[in-house]
Amino acid sequence: MDIIWHSKSKQYNLYNDKISYIMGITPLGDLGSIYFGKRIHDKEDMSYVLNRFGLPNVAVDPDTESYSMELNRQEYPSFGITDFGTQAYEIELANGSRVSAFVYRDHKIFKGKHALKGLPATYADVNEAMTLEIYLEDETARMSLTLIYTIFDKYPVITRHVKFTNNGTEITKLTRALSVCIDLPNQDYEWMQFSGAWARERVPEVKKLSAGSVSIESKRGISSANQNPFVIVKRPKTDDFSGEAMGMSFVYSGNFLAQAECDTFGRLRLLMGINPDRFTWPLKKGESFETPEVVIAFTDEGLNYLSQTFHDLYNNNLVRGRWKNTPRPILLNNWEATFMDFDEDRILEIAKKAKEAGVELFVLDDGWFGNRNDDYSGLGDWIENPDKFPQGMAGLARKVNALGMKFGFWIEPEMVNPDSNLFRRHPEWILATPGRKSSLGRHQLVLDFSREEVVDYIYGMLKKVIENAPISYIKWDMNRSLTEVYSTELSADEQGMVYHKYVMGVYGLYERFRIDFPDILFESCSSGGNRYDAGMLYYAPQAWCSDNTDAIDRIRIQYGTSFGYPISSIGAHVSAVPNQQTGRNTSITTRANVACFGTFGYELDLNRISDEEFEEVKKQIIFMKENRELLQFGTFYRLRSPYKNDQAAWMVVSKDRKKAIFGLYCMRSNVNQLPGFIKLAGLKEDVKYKLKGEEYYGDELMYLGLKLAKLSSKALATGQDFISYVEILEAV
Ligand code: DGJ
Predict the structure, then answer these.
(1) According to the model, what pLDDT value does residue 557 have?
(2) In CATH, what number is assigned to the domain containing residue 100?
(3) Is residue 345 in some structural domain?
(4) What whole-number distance in Å separates Cα of residue 337 and Cα of residue 601?
(5) How far is the CA of 430 from the centre of ligand 1 (A)?
């Protein structure tokens, strides 16, 4: 890994063993893109890549009379000069003009990576990464711009973000400040997005790119289950095992935009950042705005390798603290077992049985506080309900501890019910537009987290509960999108700041918890996977993946999630059947076989399953304890897509490739067909692995494939719905 500055040609080359990222200063003094992709040789001067000629009907620079931005690839383009593509940023000056032209002034190259103020971001020590900061200036606007690039040593990854500063005396308005633009010289790509909705999150969807734009966005104030802030751009032939692909992941949890734009001269422009819609950030003299970070990975080794890159990077350089790379406790959450209908006796009854099964952590979900017996009231009143818990959270937590389990609980700090003491006392603390009704979502309103005093107050209330009880885990929920977004605290000119300030408020609160209670394991949640993004992982290393706990649907949801997020982050539980959301019946084996490729836990009352099932649960927990490190942190391979087949398959391989765990799931029966073979991955070719008592060479399993009838000829040949197999492979 290195970052080279060729001062004669004014060119930068950021490279590591796998990738090169090359750019240079153009005849106009701004930054132009030269190359991003598989590593190539460094060369003093590659400026031949620039097009220094006009074409009919193309606007050119008046000084050079031959250079058009439209015919060249930019690093961080603006609109209004000679490029008509979508711009990465826009600044409105006090005189109403919106044309910008930043030119190169200086740069700094250093080892390691700086943190982003108040924002989540990947981190790296001096051996792990190098950073380049390029300083540009627009004299007319009296603004400076810093483009910040980090290249990682071990990963084919570049991170990018930018910072604007107003050096003038007049207020300027940033009306668009995306984090990244990547212009590529070729449009033969497909765009892959992960769309969905509540209970059907992150469905991979692929579109061929052609002239025009494709984009996804969120305007909900959260990243959302509808569109995930992670996209892949890949060659049409790229699959899980081969081919070129680029992934872009936004380390941010609010409104976003991700876009691919093909112009009619062959340029593909990729953009990602805070959604410019509803965003305006006024900058007074001396003030700066720093955008969140985008992580960009490139590979020519297929989508599994691309995903593994994100998994490893996020496990090693995004997740922080006590739970980094640490196998996650097996938990039991009472939500689907009781909803809000419980008291201490009922909770302890569930907890005792959980302990008997081997569960390590008991999680008390929604309903423990205020007057919260249904979802119409209580949010905002973070004080234990004495009718349910006479000795408070502390009393219950100690009793759970005495059983031999850790204790955790649920919160939804960003929300308030109209029927709550908090709202009665502070009706002005919600996001609400003057003169308009406030829409409800799950009967609740959104607190104005752009205001410090609101965040402080919520922190104070929750801190008391946490300090008084032995708390090991917190599930932080968020159950609605933001509407009527307006903050009474801000002036008319500042209303475009609210969405982002809200997110900063959420991050600020998370950070306070993290600092004051560093051992607590946080799990983020937003009606399941409504805020499943890299930003959240910086604070909460795991996320409740979906409220849909049906094992068969979960195969798809977890499969889709695996493209951009590590298995260690996927909150996955075994719940009761018939399933609450789908009504489907699946065996306890299949439910666990899916959940074990995740953080693993239970979401049911173990008193209410059969004795045989309970015996199986005990075995599942033993299996998980023995194998969770591998399952959660091993190298994960998608083998067969549940979106294209009736059977899905995936596996994890240990870093030393001596052990692997394979999962096969029959989602729909295949009557009167041969089960066939499935090619495994990631094994050592010349090592023999033992699987179900038989030995196979790694190459045999990878290139001939595993004969599925070997798992269970009877079941597979007769093709039962919803059966599944999880098998261990061990090097002999
Ligand atoms: C939505 C979450 O996704 C559920 O797991 C549960 O915590 C409920 N909220 C509680 O209200």
Answers:
(1) 98
(2) 2.70.98.60
(3) no
(4) 13
(5) 21
Q: What is the DSSP code string of 675-720?
A: --EE---S--TTSEEEETTEEEEHHIIIII-EEGGGT-HHHHHHT-
Per the listing, tokens 């406790």 go with 329
Q: Out of 222, 366, 412, give the residue to mutate to test ligand 1, the one with the largest number of ligand atoms within 8 Å of its CB.
A: 366
Token readout for 496 is 């475009």
- Using a 6 Å cutoff on CB, does residue 412 contact ligand 1? no
Out of 317, 349, 366, a domain closes at 317
The verdict on residue 424 lying in a domain is no
**Catalytic positions:** 477, 547
Count of H-run helices and E-run strands, the chain: 13, 39
Report how far residue 489's alpha carbon sits from residue 484's, in angstroms, rounded to the nearest whole number: 15
- Across 421-480, where does the E strand assignment appear? 445-446, 473-476
CATH number at residue 698: 2.60.40.1180
Q: Are strands 647-653 and 659-666 parallel, antiparallel or unpaired?
A: antiparallel
Instruction: For a ligand 1 pocket test, name from 338, 340, 410, 573 the mutation site with the most ligand atoms within 8 angstroms of its C-beta.
Output: 410
Q: Name the DSSP letter for residue 296.
A: E
As a whole number of Å, the end-to-end CA separation of the chain is 37
Count other C-beta atoms under 10 Å from residue 578's C-beta. 11
Residue at 279: amino acid letter: F
Ligand 1: atom nearest CA of 410 is 7
Structural domain of 286: 2-317
What is the per-residue pLDDT across 458-475, written as a single tens digit (0 to 9) for each?
999 999 999 999 999 999
Backbone angles phi, psi at 666, to 5 degrees: -95, 110
DSSP conformation class of 51:
-
Helices 611-633 and 588-595 pack at an angle, to 10 degrees, of 20
* 366 in contact with ligand 1, CB cutoff 6 A: yes
- Structurally, the chain folds into a number of domains equal to 2
Tokens of 63: 């000084």
Q: Contact at 8 Å (CB) between 412 and 479?
A: yes
Compute the mean pLDDT over every residue in the chain, rounded to the nearest whole number. 97
Q: Is 70 exceeded by the pLDDT of residue 533?
A: yes
Do 717 and 644 form a contact (C-beta atoms < 8 A)? no
Phi, psi of 656 (to 5 degrees): -85, 0
At which of 317, 339, 366 does a domain end?
317
Checking DSSP bridges between strand 361-364 and strand 331-333, what pairing results, if any? parallel
pLDDT digits (tens, 9 = 90+) for 431-455: 999 999 999 999 999 999 999 999 9
For the CA atoms of 639, 645, 648, 650, the dihedral, rounded to the nearest 10 degrees, stands at: 10
Q: What confidence score (pLDDT) does residue 713 get? A: 67
Contact 261, 274 (CB under 8 A): no
Question: Distance between CA 204 and CA 194 in Å, rounded?
Answer: 5
Distance 217 CA to ligand 1 centre (A): 24
Q: Closest Cα partner for 572 from 366, 310, 333?
A: 333
State pLDDT tens for residues 489-509.
999 999 999 999 999 999 999
Q: Is residue 159 part of a domain?
A: yes
Q: What is the pLDDT of residue 215?
A: 98
616 within domain boundaries: no
What DSSP designation does 377 have? Answer: B
Paired residues of 144 in beta bridges: 137, 165
CA of 364 to the centre of ligand 1 (A): 11
Close Cβ partners of 374 (under 8 Å, ≥ 6 residues apart) = 340
